[in-house]
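Kindly inspect this chain:
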Amino acid sequence: MNLTLALRLGRISNLPTVWSNVLVGALLAGGSLADPSLPLLMVTLSLFYVGGMFLNDAFDREFDARHRPERPIPSGQVSARQVFLIGFGLLAIGIAGVAGASRGPDGTPAWRALASGAALVGAIVFYNAHHKGNPLSPLVMGLCRVLVVLTASFSLAVTLPAAVVLASIALLCHLIGLTYIAKEEHLDRIGNLWPLGFLALPVLYGLVLAVSTPLVWVPLVLYAGVLAFALRLLRRRARGDVPRAVVTLIAGMSVLDGVVLAAGGHILPAALAVVAFVLTLALQRWVPGT
């Protein structure tokens, strides 16, 4: 397998959104940008993401053979066995990384972080194995991202602050709306629009945060603009609009992270989250985000 193919299978263009998720989990739990475990957490949770993307292609190989024959496995560029091995291997390395990045009060790896990482592995595998035809798959996909945030939090803290819980709920709502759209991406159209109402809930939460922290308005207006742009594409539904809306909403997760980071007083990390949004969009031009 060459590097270009591996990058495509891993959807590495979306990794900046994982990094901003880690910032939310770590910093809202009391960590700082100077924490030496933060870079390791970013790398570790990136492995979970890339491993999950490999498994997505492996489990979807029969569906892709019918609807997306240009994908690496049905086009014969790589075997399903090799993709499965790499995917599960990356998840195993990710668990080891969580053990190395987390420390409990007694100096041993934090069991809550390990449990959250194990739950993330379970959610990733379950989603990839059962998301086709499963009406609850958007919820499971959302839980995968929530568990990224929780694993980062539990790596640095014993309990979850309310800010982490609320940020996780907002992220879950964003992912439910996004994943519903992505489920019909191969059709290049959207059937029912009611699940997109979940995307409004993070905006409402952002408005509540902005009342007490005016700096939240900057990333919140940007986030609302991202949603408006994606929804306009879905309403127009010209050829290619649905896939474009999907990748825009994927990148938009980082802007939502910027909203909750700004509300917590983490201004520089909030700016970095917005940079992650721009970087994701730029990388998606090089490596497809879906």
